[in-house]
Design goal:
Distance between the termini: 46 Å
Helix content: over 70%
Oligomer: single chain
Strand content: under 5%
Low-confidence stretches: none
Largest sheet: none
Mean pLDDT: 81
Radius of gyration: 17 Å
Shape: globular
Order of helices and strands: HHHHHH
């Protein structure tokens, strides 16, 4: 179950980062992506933990056996939680994420108002 949460978490992170491009094509997706992007920026800027992280950690602690690590844990977790992630890098990522999405939404706004 923890691996499923890792997959969902990774999918959400990818949606936060690249969902704006999907919104360029499917405008109704804006209403899902915009709050997700805002959440992603806030998590990075303020150092919050995503609730998915708590669920995953809780499930991993109660897991009573099996392998010492799974395929997902070995390959995906270091991408989601890099060991070299400092508070400064996290804030920088939040700023980059915000600017990246602002550019996409500026384009969406311009197209909506006929200023292509």
């Amino acid at each position: 179950m923890a691996d499923l949460i890792v997959i969902i978490h990774a999918g959400f992170i990818l949606f936060v980062i690249f969902g704006g491009f999907l919104a360029l094509k499917w405008r109704n997706l804006i209403w899902l992506h915009l709050p997700a992007a805002i959440w992603g920026v806030l998590v990075e800027l303020f150092g919050w933990f995503c609730p998915l992280t708590y669920y995953e950690n809780s499930l991993r602690q109660t897991d009573g056996g099996g392998y010492t690590s799974s395929f997902l844990e070995h390959y995906l977790i270091p991408i989601i939680y890099p060991s070299a992630l400092s508070r400064e890098i996290q804030i920088g990522l939040g700023i980059i994420l915000a600017l990246f999405n602002l550019l996409i939404y500026r384009k969406l706004y311009s197209e909506r108002n006929g200023n292509r």
